[in-house]
Each structure stands twice: as C-alpha cells, then as structure tokens.
Amino acid sequence: MTQAKVAQLANVPRLKVIQVERGDPSVSMKAYAAIAKALGAELTLTPSRRPTLEEARAFFAYNE
C-alpha cells in the first residue's frame, strides 16, 4: 500500500505517514492510532516498567 493510500484511509497528511515511518517523536498518538487502523493493525501501549508502590500512590493521591 502506498503512503498516499495509507494517508487517505487514515485521514492524515502523507507527511504524517512519512513521520511515523521515520519514528518522529513529535507525532501524536492519535495519528499513530489512525495509521495503525488504516493498515488493519492495532496499537497497544505497554509501560516499559511497572510503577513502584510509591509512584502509584503519588499518581492516585488527592491533593489535600
């Protein structure tokens, strides 16, 4: 499939497809998801590591 066709199916500019191919870190997750869907793929995010208990507590803590 051509870049142009992927861009058309994903409803993104062809430049965005090129940026994804290059691994450009400025590309939004929304664009990655749209391109993955256009290619019939699924995008799954997995953390590189589990948070520590302290990190989890801090994430869910309420500011009092």
SSE topology sketch:
Blueprint: H1 3-10, H2 14-22, H3 29-38, H4 53-60
Q: How does this structure look, described?
A:
With 64 residues, the protein is mainly alpha-helical. The chain has a single domain (3-60), classed as 434 Repressor (Amino-terminal Domain) (Orthogonal Bundle), CATH 1.10.260. It contains 4 helices and no strands. Helix 1 (3-10) packs across helix 3 (29-38). It starts with a helix and ends with a helix.
- Indicate the CATH class: Mainly Alpha
Taking pLDDT < 50 over at least 5 consecutive residues as the criterion, the unreliable ranges are none
Secondary-structure-derived class:
mainly alpha
**Topology as a string of helices (H) and strands (E):** HHHH
The CATH topology name reads 434 Repressor (Amino-terminal Domain)
Distance between the termini: 54 Å
- What is the number of helices? 4
Strand content: under 5%
Per CATH, which architecture?
Answer: Orthogonal Bundle
Shape: elongated
What's the main sheet like? none
Task: Name the average pLDDT.
Answer: 90
Number of strands: 0
Which percent bin holds the helix content? 40-55%
Cα-atom radius of gyration = 17 Å
In short:
The chain is an all-alpha fold and 64 residues long. It has a single domain, classed as 434 Repressor (Amino-terminal Domain) (Orthogonal Bundle), CATH 1.10.260.
